[in-house]
Amino acid sequence: MLCIICGDAIVGVSVDHFWLREHRIVYSSFSGAGVTGVGCYDDEPSPRAPADPNAHWRNASADTAFEVIPVNVQREKEGRHGFILHDSCWNLLIAASQPRSICIPRLLEVCQSVPFPIKTYRLGWFHCYGGVLELEHRRPFRWQEAYSIAGSSGMDHVPEDPFKIPELEELVDSMTADQNESSQFERRTTSDCFTKLPWELREAIAVLLRTNDALNLRQASASFWPLMSSNPFWASRFAQYGERSFILEARQKFRGSRNWLNLYRTTSSRCNIDALRNRRRIWKLVQLLTAIVETKYERSDPTTGPRIAEPDTINQTWNKTTGIAFTDEDIKERKTFEVGCVTCHSDTVAMPRDLLKIGISILRFEESTYVTGIRMLTRSNVDIRFGFVGHDEKWFATTAVRGFRIAQAPSGLRAIRVAGRDGNLSPWFGNADGFPVTDRLMGTRRRIAALTIDTDEFKVVGLGVALREHKKRIATDMRRDIQLGSDALWYPTLPPSGTFHNDATYVGHKPSKTQYQPQVWTHFGGHGGKDLDHLCEISVECLYNINSLEFVYDRRFPDGQNKKTLRFHNKVDESWAIRQKFKIDGAGGERIESFDVGLSKMEIPHVPEHWRHGYPVSLKAVTNRGRSFEIRCKTIRKNENIRIEALRATEGTTITGLYGALDVQDGLVGLGVISESL
Question: How many domains would you assign to the chain?
Answer without folding.
Answer: 4
